[in-house]
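Extended Data, record Malolactic enzyme
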Amino acid sequence: MTSNVQEILNNPFINQGTAFTKDQRAKLGIEGMLPPTVQTLEQQAEVTYQQYQTKSSNLEKRIFLMTIFNTNRVLFFKMFSQHVMEFMPIVYDPTIAESIENYSHLFVNPQNATYLSIDEPDKIEQSLKNGSEGRKIKLIVVTDGEAILGIGDWGTQGVDIAVGKLMVYTAAAGIDPAEVLPVVLDVGTNNQKLLDDPLYLGLHHKRIKGEQYHQFVDRFVSAAEEIFPELYLHFEDFGRDNAASILDQYKDKILTFNDDIQGTGIIVLAGILGALNISGEKLSDQKYLCFGAGTAGTGIAKQIYTEMVNSGLSEEEAKDHFYLVDRQGLLFEDTPDLTPEQKPFTRKRSEFSNADELTNLEAVVKAIHPTIMVGTSTQPGTFTEEIVTEMASHTEHPIIFPLSNPTKLAEAKAEDLIKWSKGKALVATGIPADPVEFEGVTYEIGQANNALVYPGLGLGAIAANSKILSETMISVAAHSLGGIVDPSKSGAAVLPPVSKLDVFSQTVAENVCNQAIKEGLSQNDYKNGHDAVTAIRWQPKY
Ligand SMILES: NC(=O)c1ccc[n+]([C@@H]2O[C@H](COP(=O)([O-])OP(=O)(O)OC[C@H]3O[C@@H](n4cnc5c(N)ncnc54)[C@H](O)[C@@H]3O)[C@@H](O)[C@H]2O)c1
Ligand SMILES: O=C(O)C[C@H](O)C(=O)O
Ligand SMILES: [Mn+2]
């Protein structure tokens, strides 16, 4: 049995370590259990950051930060707030990919996550209660690990994406870390390497599909809604066969969000609006090419289509701006194996004299002359020099977003895109990219990663205790990201910088919350978004 005293120092939600004052130490009965000098949070953050700097690899840095996270949440988030730009790629994408791939072998602590097994569905309710330990959970990030970033199926090891996404929620938008719960639905894995590894910590069987899978997901959703009545339920990295159908099943009934579909849709729309602000062009003049029409690719296309319709185009007119390319090449009405999300954006073969040849990206780019090309294909290096120069020869300001994560999967590097297009391309990448120097101009590269928007969106929806997440709340979020970048400056980024993440998350949250209030979706008494958001925003302090 653990004594109460030990529980205090082992509970990251209440532990303050060396910052416990003499009075607190006496009251809590922990005198003599810490060195005598009482430190300030600032001193703790300083000494911990010094230790962090001695770690040489990014993975070691992440592992070190996780020990702080597991020991003392306030200290962890204090440091995160002081070093946002530096910590984002360590805590989150791309380093998180390495941590997921090696999870079972690196395991030391479950990080207050909840692990649900499809083999024991009767334990869902109790497991959620155990995991939350009486905390009032308002935000769950759940994954089933099937499509982690672009690295595929990692089974139970995918839990780290839920943990990492939640860390960014708190760092960016001040969601109280005691009110969140990372959840993994372990339904098996088709990753043979994991199945063959006796040390793999998840279920050692293939993924269960069909009715049993859907019942398990539904039972989890019902239990979570029942146990945590004010819940915002965030789905992350589900596979292409399930992500959109699960969202459609719940989006009009509960407050839920799919990050890969909606979060990515919002950030890419915001990036395109930023790019058009720089080029002075109109959205309705653009030709949009999606490369990799899976969960994210079709989610983005739908968001941009919705924006076109909202700005006055008919549905038919708006659809005519889209071209989707997947494994089969350009997607036509009669292409085999279309997903339900791809179908609305397919083309007619009769539009092209060489339709049968449009089986690869280069041929499609030559045939359609896109002005926007967004990569969510998981295929590295596929935005080649030939393709980019061809695109740039037909449009003054090609908008090119290689979004596949992590770094090793990106369709192109920002530096190459700027160079190949002779500085014409307006670029954003999924992972952080350094500024690019080209012919005397410094090009800032925006990060089109849903992390720039999901925290503010969630904070706004939670502050409103909204009934659902409406399309207009989503659209408001996309439009909130303008204004921070000065588009008249040469080489300006298409999106605001991660260094201002906390500032624009607040703007997004207030606007989203106001929209919920306006639509009558809010279930609390606040009259405006500013008050509602400010009231719940958590700060790292003792
Ligand atoms: N930057 C961001 O915020 C962000 C957000 C979501 C996803 N992503 C990235 O996008 C990528 C895709 O994620 P997803 O969740 O949509 O996965 P997904 O599996 O649903 O979609 C990938 C799609 O690419 C297609 N594809 C595979 N090989 C191809 C090829 N050779 N040519 C054309 N298409 C091909 C697949 O058939 C599939 O439709 C991942 O790398 C992910 O990290 C980035
Ligand atoms: O996790 C990220 O970095 C973004 C996105 O959700 C992805 O799946 O790639
Ligand atoms: Mn994702």
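Summary. The chain has a mean pLDDT of 97.
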